[in-house]
Amino acid sequence: MIKIHISTKDGVPIFQQIVTQIKHMVASGRLAPGEIVPPIRVLAEQLLINPNTVARAYKELESEGIFISRQGSGTRVAEKGSTLDYAERLQVLTERVESLLVEADQLDFTVEDIIELIRQKNKLFYTSERGKNIND
Amino acid sequence: MTDSGFRYDAAPIEVKGLTRRFGKKIALNNINLTTSSGRVLGLVGENGAGKTTLIKHLMGMLKAQQGEVKVFGINPVKDPVGALSRIGYLSEDRDLPHWMRVDELMNYTRAFYPDWDVTYAEELLKVFRLDPSAKIKQLSRGQKAQAALLTALAYRPPLLLLDEPSSGLDPIVRRDILTAIIRTIADEGRTVLFSSHLLEEVERVADDVAMIHEGEIVINDSIENIKAKHHSITLRFHEPQPDKPKIEGALSINGKDKEWSIICNCNIDEITSKAKSMGSEIYQDTPPTLEDIFIAYAGVDRSIIKEDKR
């Protein structure tokens, strides 16, 4: 069972919440390459959301090369990571960094503060996520 | 039934220019609403906005005073059998014959619908954990809603009209009802219209949203488009503003001094340059929740918007 948390409080479209959380699970290894993901109807019932929304999220994940769907054998996590090319990947990350810098400036943090925070979080991210995986 | 106008390719719901008055009060004013097959439409609006009145027109329980109402191409007032055999209806007050037992209700309803699916009905009975020998008047509010939903689903109608399906229910029963609704959505081609004042539920379940405010439709779009078109923006002015700043396209403006929050249906580039020209900067731009948008529209003074758009 995939653990996804849907919130209708912060305005982020539901399909986007699914996409983001699944990307996170794949990045942290909680969803392994080749692993079969739940069928659309099953996940829709589990999350209590419209199946069309789940379908939309799966389609997005497929178009980004994170999921692979084959007729008859369901949808799986792709064997290797993103199929986006370097420039595209860089573009995605650059946008995030820019907004982070703006936010940090407004909240009165320096670039060094950000880097330190990223280091700390990175450490936690890998220890906790990988750790969970082992314990599962 | 021969000349009923039924067409497989007709829209499940087609309402054109529908106006309804009760005495002097306009309950519905020039409503236009079309659904496409296989979609889930959430009908939202305050109590008394006209949601139930609109649903009653679709059921043929009210006759259009002006305009046109069609269900799969059928006028439900002229051909009630043709229309009602294709609609599963859950009324707001769940008007069930309270003297019957659950199994009697099932047999009774079955007699009206040649397409009644006995196996599916039994399955729903189990899912809802309803006791077939229980008297309806002894059922809890949630069980009554489940019994009513069972009789609306068991003949697998291509169109479901659910008037406040989970209103007044505790969270567990609401979950069961929502699960049942979500299951029926997944059935190929089933179209659902459900009214609700619980926007969280609408956001989870609906593909499209129509919002009625004082008898008029103020939003009618897919949730995806609604979210993309509306912004929740925080503006920071260089100088404190003594009065509410006037911003084109803004549905609501709240704040004081230098910081103002806006919900708008606007192009973000236009609003950015507008903000700059007014001596302010956009400090935050997030997608609003359906509730934010709903409240903004419900409180909006349309005469002010028109004036601004001149």
Number of helices of chain A: 5
**H/E element string of chain B?**
EEEHEHEHHHEHEHEEHEEHEHH
State the largest interface.
Answer: A-B, 19 and 27 residues
Just give the CATH class of the largest domain in chain A.
Mainly Alpha
Task: Give me the CATH fold name of the largest domain in chain B.
Answer: Rossmann fold
Oligomer: heterodimer
Description:
The complex is a heterodimer of chains A (136) and B (310). Chain A has 136 residues and is mainly alpha-helical. Chain A is 60% helix and 6% strand. Chain A is built from five helices and two strands; from the N terminus they run H-H-H-E-E-H-H. The model of chain A has no long low-confidence stretch (mean pLDDT 83). With 310 residues, chain B is an alpha/beta fold. Chain B has eleven helices and twelve strands. Chain B is elongated. The C terminus of chain B is likely disordered. The chains are: A mainly alpha (136), B alpha/beta (310). Chains A and B meet through helix 2 of A and helix 6, helix 7 and helix 8 of B.
Q: What descriptive keywords fit this protein?
A:
A: 136 residues; Arc Repressor Mutant, subunit A; 2 domains; two-stranded antiparallel ribbon; globular; B: alpha/beta; Rossmann fold; 6-stranded mixed β-sheet; elongated
Question: What's the SSE blueprint?
Answer:
The complex is a heterodimer of chains A (136) and B (310).
Chain A: H1 14-28, H2 40-47, H3 51-63, E1 67-70, E2 74-77, H4 86-106, H5 111-135
Antiparallel strand pairs in A: 1-2
Chain B: E1 13-22, E2 25-35, E3 40-44, H1 51-58, E4 66-71, H2 80-84, E5 87-90, H3 102-110, H4 118-127, H5 141-153, E6 159-163, H6 171-186, E7 191-195, H7 199-205, E8 208-213, E9 216-222, H8 223-229, E10 230-241, E11 250-265, H9 268-277, E12 280-286, H10 290-298, H11 302-309
Parallel strand pairs in B: 3-7, 3-8, 5-6, 6-7
Antiparallel strand pairs in B: 1-2, 1-4, 8-9, 10-11, 10-12
Helix pairs in contact in B: 5-6
